[in-house]
Design brief:
5 strands, 3 helices, alpha+beta, single chain, elongated, about 150 residues
Length: about 150
């Protein structure tokens, strides 16, 4: 029987990918002054500040690959809220900066997990959330990342 190799991602690949994204958002110069939230727990967390960027885990799903190390698709949302005088314009600018930060951290993510298939893909982008008045401009993007878990 062979010994298992040490786990390089003890919290799991989705946590490691998310942590790399949040770090990139907090380090992005264009987002200086914005509050960056990692998986906000309550709607009230989104009420403080004139510029908010938030990241939220959505799902991590296996893709059938018999006889190979498991390929997976991790999904997350990236959102911005802007409550300045030009809230709609500001939300779009902050979202673009946040999206650029996320794309720029792909090399860091690729050192954690092996990016596969389509890599990172932006899906639907929403401008309103039902039953949630953010009091300003909102842009919310849905993303997926195809990867293989090294563990």
């Amino acid at each position: 029987m062979s010994a298992l190799k040490p786990d390089t991602l003890p919290q799991g690949a989705p946590f490691a990918i998310g942590a790399a994204i949040v770090y990139a958002l907090r380090s992005e110069p264009s987002l200086a002054g914005a509050t960056v939230l990692d998986n906000p727990k309550r709607a009230s967390d989104l009420q403080t500040g004139s510029r908010i960027v938030f990241f939220e885990d959505q799902a991590d799903k296996p893709i059938a690959q018999p006889g190979q190390s498991q390929k997976r698709t991790y999904g997350f949302t990236l959102g911005v809220i802007n409550r300045t005088d030009n809230d709609r314009q500001g939300a779009h600018a902050d979202y673009r900066a946040a999206k650029r930060a996320v794309r720029n951290c792909l090399p860091a993510i690729n050192t954690l997990v092996r990016l596969e298939g389509r890599g990172m893909v932006e899906g639907d982008v929403l401008y309103r959330l039902e039953n949630l008045d953010v009091g300003g401009g909102l842009v919310l993007g849905l993303f997926t990342v195809d990867y293989r878990d090294p563990g």
